[in-house]
Write a structure and sequence with these properties.
- Keywords: Kinase, Membrane, Phosphoprotein, Transferase, Transmembrane, Transmembrane helix, Two-component regulatory system.
- This is histidine kinase.
- One of its GO terms (biological process) is cellular response to phosphate starvation.
- With 334 residues, the chain is of the alpha+beta class.
- The protein has three domains: 109 residues, no CATH class; 60 residues; 148 residues, 2-Layer Sandwich (Heat Shock Protein 90), CATH 3.30.565.
- 62% of the residues lie in helices and 14% in strands.
- The protein contains eight helices and seven strands.
- It has a five-stranded mixed β-sheet, covered by helices on one side. The protein has a two-stranded antiparallel sheet with strand order 1-3.
- Strand 6 and strand 7 form a beta hairpin.
- The longest helix is centred in the first third of the chain and has 77 residues.
- It starts with a helix and ends with a strand.
- The relative contact order is 0.08.
């Protein structure tokens, strides 16, 4: 509410400045015209007294009047030029202030969303691990072996979830300051195929499809960084797909680069959101009512790592529904 009041007050001040400037401009223009008319009349009387002119036409054609008229014209142009410069400066200033205000509001909203999401993402696995440990302490002797194994696996999954979250936070901080790629040669085909296979086991209800042409495709790049990239893309595809989930990853080799596509049949991304999904902490919708997990760091990390490698990433609509992320990477990291 305070921000809205300050914004309304700033618009009132700007409107007052424009009206005041218009008033003073009209007044100055009129004063300038009155001064010219007075000087013209005084000059005419003097020239008549000296016998230099006899008619009105002689006065308007005289050298003295032409000099006076030129001075008046220059003053008019000067007033008009300064007025135009003031208006342009004011408009640019208002635009810059408005843009800065919108950026500040956007950053504040994103920070709030991040705090809400990170609080939920931290509390949920911590609460699960705490519950599992309390169960072990109170009922360890009464639990069957299969129950112990189930609880242990659940605790490990939550610990992995915390580990991934912390790694994403650290990586996002490095990407803005001192991140450097550690490139080496590795088999991209094997990396991606193994990744898809593990996710297929993790999400049995999802139909994962993988295709690489040619097979045994090698690349010189940061293996850990690209692993984070494709894990984020595939996990996002699972997260935002509903019902009959199908996720397709295709890899193709070209003369100077390698192209990877990750396509899903999920809810899709609106054209309005496409330009913002790679912003840090940005997530569609409100954190107060969101049901999907995440912190808004995944796609930011993806974009930055791809950029560090000298590649590019694009997002488009899948047909008939869903989203396609297209990545182009050089064969040798820049």
């Amino acid at each position: 509410m305070t921000n809205i009041r300050l914004r309304v007050l700033s618009y009132i001040v700007i409107a007052y400045m424009l009206m005041a400037f218009t008033w003073w401009s009209v007044l100055l223009w009129k004063t300038l015209d009155d001064a010219f008319q007075a000087k013209s009349a005084f000059l005419k009387i003097g020239m008549i007294a000296e016998g230099k002119i006899r008619t009105e036409m002689d006065f308007y054609q005289s050298r003295e009047y032409n000099i006076l008229e030129q001075q008046y014209t220059r003053q008019q142009w000067m007033v008009a030029g300064e007025g135009l410069f003031f208006v342009i400066s004011l408009v640019v200033g208002v635009w810059l202030i408005n843009r800065g205000y919108n950026k500040e509001v956007y950053a504040t909203r994103q920070s709030r969303n991040f705090l809400l999401s990170i609080t939920h993402e931290l509390k949920s696995p911590i609460a699960s691990i705490k519950l599992i440990l309390e169960t072990f302490r109170k009922r360890r002797d009464k639990l069957a072996p299969e129950q112990l194994e189930k609880l242990t696996n659940s605790g490990l999954r939550e610990a992995d979830r915390l580990n991934i979250l912390v790694n994403d936070l650290l990586l996002s901080a490095k990407l803005e300051t001192a991140y450097q790629i550690h490139a080496d040669h590795f088999n991209l085909d094997e990396l991606l195929e193994d990744m898809v296979q593990k996710l297929d086991e993790k999400y049995p209800a999802v139909d994962f499809q993988y295709q690489c042409t040619p097979r045994d495709l090698s690349i010189h790049a940061d293996k850990m960084g690209l692993t984070s990239v494709f894990i984020n893309l595939l996990e996002n595809a699972v997260k935002y797909s509903k019902g009959d989930q199908q996720i397709r990853m295709t890899v193709s080799e070209h003369q100077d680069d390698i192209r990877i596509e990750v396509a899903d049949n999920g809810i899709g991304i609106s054209d309005q959101e496409k330009g913002r999904i790679f912003d840090k902490f940005y997530r569609v919708g409100s954190e107060d009512t969101r049901t999907t997990k995440g912190t808004g760091l995944g796609l930011f990390i993806v974009k930055e790592i791809i950029k560090v490698h000298g590649g590019r990433i694009q997002v488009s609509d899948n047909k008939p529904k869903g989203t396609v992320f297209s990545i182009t990477l050089p064969k040798i990291a820049t």
